[in-house]
Amino acid sequence: MRAQRILLILLCTLLLMSALLFRCLGCNKECKDARGLKTHERSCQKNTVFTTSTLKKRGREEGLRVGEKVARMENESLVQKDREILRGRRDETEPDEFGSFRCYPTRPTAAPQGPGSLDKLSDAPTLSEQLDGGSTSSALQRFGPGVLKTIQDGAEKARDWFFPFLNVTVFRLMAWANTGSNVKSDKEIQRLVDEVILADDFNREDLRSFRVPREFERLDSMDAPNNVFAATDGWHETSVKIQVPKEGVRFTSEADAPTFTVPNVFFRKLTEVIRSAAQAAKGQDVDFLPFRSYWRRRKMNPERAANGDPGHSDSEPSGLSDDDNSGDRFENIRLFSDLPDTDAMLEEDARIRAMPRNPEDAPEVEYALAPLMVWSDSTHLANFGGANLWPVYIYFGWLSKYLRARPKSFAAHHLAYLPSLPDSIQDWYQTHYRTTATADVLRFCKKELMHAIWCLLMDDEFMNAYHKGMLIHCADGVWRRFFPRFFTYSADYPEKALLACIRFLAQCPCPRCLIKKADILRMGSSSDQQQRQNWRIDGSKLWNIIARVRQWIYRRGYALTSKAITQVLDPMSILPTRSAFSSRLGATGFNFYSLFAPDILHEFELGVWKAIFIHLLRILCAVGNDRIQILNERFRRVPTFGRNTIRRFSRNVSGMKQMAGRDLEDILQCIMPVFETCLPPPHDELVMTLLFKLALWHGLAKLRLHTEETVAIFHAATRSLGKIARQFLHKTCEAYETRELPKEEAARGRPTVVQTVKRKLLNLLTYKWHSLGDCPFAIPWFGCLDGVNTQQGEMEHRQVKRFYVRTNKNQAARQIARRQRREHQLLKMLQRDRERRTAEQAVASAPLAEEARKAPPAASHNQAEADPLPFQTSPHERYHVSRSERHHENIFKWVSEHHNDPAFPSFIPMLKDHLLSRLTDREYDGDEDGFGPDEHDTVRFVNDRIYFHKALRINYTSYDMRRAQDTINPRTQPNIMLLAPTEDDGDDSANQHPYWYARVLGIFHLNVKHRGFLSKSKAARRMDVLWIRWYGRDLTAPGGFETCRLHRVGFIPHDAPNSFGFLDPNQVLRACHIIPAFAYGKTPEYLPPSVARRPEERDEDYVYYYIGMFADRDMLMRFIGGAIGHKGLPSNRVTARIRYPQGELNSALVDELWETSLDHDAAPVTEYSGSADPARAASEAEEGVPSDEEDYGYQWNYDESEDDRNEAADDEPEVEGNLSDGNGAEEERAGEDSPDELGGEDGEEMWEDDFEQEGYASP
């Protein structure tokens, strides 16, 4: 009987297993066989919710790990859908609404997601940014393989996202204490209440046994090797050894020389940092594969142009196909923005794909680069004392530069904290050699220490990954084999010289080429372009020279500055130290000299421009007549602009106290109206032209998005800047006997009874001036220069300084490394918490959203509403005005109270004309349509009220396709610009300028009811209105790029028609920076005393004002024209006919732009179409790009000049006689390091707190 029961149970078990064998565990559907079940599971949505352990037991995919199986099932349908956007055999994406598309050299495994929503493209902190509602990757993958294994083994603690803390209350308290500001201000106290005390999961009982040291121990345990949650990319501490030579002491070999050990080297393994970053990178801000970015732009058909067709927009309108018969044609314009769309990454990617694949890799494994971008700089940790730190930061080029520029995105990976050469080396040297080390020996040891540490960072594991790649499972579920490559190294000049192993400011000061110091002044000329082609090359010839010199030093006991050594090294200004990048990577053909990208912060803002500005102050001192005081007074009256775009200047600008690069940038953008007429003719004209071209060059250098045309303009601007600077040196500088400024004299501080004032000349024989010529060439190779600027590293210095404050100042580097790691772990937990709460809110808000969709629409106006303008507003709206109706007046009574004010005549009739034009949908042409009294009677103001507002926010699309915002305030920033309507009144000057300008006097709204047969609704309608005062353009002083002057405007007299008016906020393009023309004084004639003026203006207007076209990059591109982001605006493209064929510039490849020099001879224009479609190519390979320069008067003609042909003969004698006499702004002796080689920061770190959210780069 018992045996029968056992047999029955076994039979039932077999029947049950056979029934479940081919049944889907997600939807319980039964399939015929295993193949049918497998096919069904791929499309079954319910099957993806099952756990990894269930999938492992079923074992349906051999060779796939459990985590990969889950990710593939979740992402398979989405990836298949995204791949449809790739088209053609060249893997081109479809053009977006701007006409921008990408061309990939190989088809990506995961299709690009595009730029995302407007929320992700918004830079201003007042624009709201929404969190992603979901993730396409498994929730288990973010914890890594160790956590997956723990889950499979049944570990319960992995369920707690706040691990290693015991409860969420302790985690929130520790996260608040170790993130945010060091100073627990009112804002931090509010954050404590909102994020900790008022959290739903806060429980005061969990804090009964709370101890801070114990919780830190738990957090530090995350890096323990035996912890399944261990982060292997943590910090390590070690020491390095260097061989120290001595003059006259011989050794058998270099290895036999005494070894000095440098302790306290804190670093992270480079391979683990790469692995951690790749596993965390996801979203639309990541590009693992390089590509070429293009702009599909419409060009005008000659037949339509001959028929007088009006101006057109630059982008392709929606719905227009390639085979449209309207006569319009298209062209592909190359775009340059970030590292993934540069020639350097495309070239390196081609090398990787030419290598044989790893035989162990599955076909779906994608090969990609790990683009490493390095920053390093020594920084002071405290205002007083000698505490300093030398951090090395790593950024990854696959991450968008818009995130890298934001310190709070935590895109910087702290790789190492480099120690300085310890003071104990003198004691060690005394012990071994019975004498003290000379300055030459100490400098040699500093360089040896730097490269010894870099050899430590590039260990054997990294070199194996460099050659064979490293297989990583990325956050998007794709397996990739990454090959790490160095692309840029951003540092100031002393550190570049240290890394390049060249002598500081020696005969060949450039770390990229071998140009002589005496030839640097010719920057931008034809001869300069030829000399730049003599690149520094890291190869066997250089290695042999260094090896031979090191044998002389160690085996023969030669002095480091002996004649034999200097004769060998000085022709190339190299040092007897081989770079770590050369010793590790030289055998692969890598030329490490190509790493050093131009640096706008140190080389232009704190270098060239600072030197020129100081010399202009010296000239003003030489002129006398209180010119310095006039300059300071004018700067104090320059209005601010934007959200700290142009800040209020200090009372003593000429003192230059505590000025950072940002302050010098503001000075350059506003100096033209300030400096006007400070010098007598003809020097005033020359200086104004110089300042204009400096501002233009600076604006082009800091563009965040370049096209082929703007790169061409940048080349032309560089050439023009070099020419005008040489004229300034030879004419203006020679005309004045300039002396040291009082600040310079005090800094010299010679302890003599009678101090002699030293003559000072402007010295442009510096590497910083020479580096300007490399900037246009660097853009196709490195991307836009804002992505490689040292400003990012300077911003990151604030993090380590914040950690230093929390240490006990004893072995600060160790404590800083530990605190940096703790914050990193806490921020990862906070990110998981945000994702968890976002998912919960999305589920909870779904029923509410459905109810709101079914609810009836709200009334168009609610008088009881009193909602002030929030701090963050939606980027989808054109503008924002508060919904509040608290501040109101009776409109008729208010107007009657000001009936004697000249700004109020016909106020209500003009207002009704404006409202009727909008109510009847008439197109705005600048002149309000006149309506009669009967038509005015059809407009009625509800309750006769006018509602006033303090501010208006204007959203606009910037030139680089980002969403930005301006705030208009009648009291502080009242000036606006709008598109000038086309006029056909026969006036030749009517359409020569693309914009109109006005000052906003008031912001208000009215609730209007419109009656009559033209009325479209009987309900009250809210209408927002701007009350404005118009500026008129001064035609006697034309501005623009041809005249090298700012556009000049002035107020229209009050008795002229249309001097005041009303404007729809939708008509406003953006705010405008308008600077008074101080040289022409003030006048009360334009307007008698009126409320239209601000109280501080004292019933007077300036006679003229200047348009600040260099206020930010977007403003500059609106005047240059042809920006991809300015879709819908008429084309105002500036052409640049410079010395290389336009056909080569418009080539889709642009491969030779960096490698070859400019062809200065005329050459025929070659035709090229960047499209893969032959039909499209035939339609595009026609006429050149038409320009509207004739309409707006913007021309760029750069013909071969006499200055270029005879430059060598004209300039050389003056260079030798006047500019290289050691009396310039930089007086370091060639061959010596700077006294403070890496400690000087030049004030470049003084950035405002709001840039932590916005990023440093202005649009």
Automatic annotation (TrEMBL):
Residues 125-138 have a biased composition (Polar residues). Residues 1180-1192, 1199-1215, 1233-1253 have a biased composition (Acidic residues). Residues 94-138, 301-325, 829-881, 1164-1259 are annotated as: Disordered. Residues 829-839 have a biased composition (Basic and acidic residues). Coiled coil: none annotated. The keyword Transcription regulation does not apply. Residues 1-19 form the signal peptide. Keywords: Signal. The keyword Signal applies. It comes from the Eukaryota. This is C2H2-type domain-containing protein. It comes from Rhodofomes roseus.
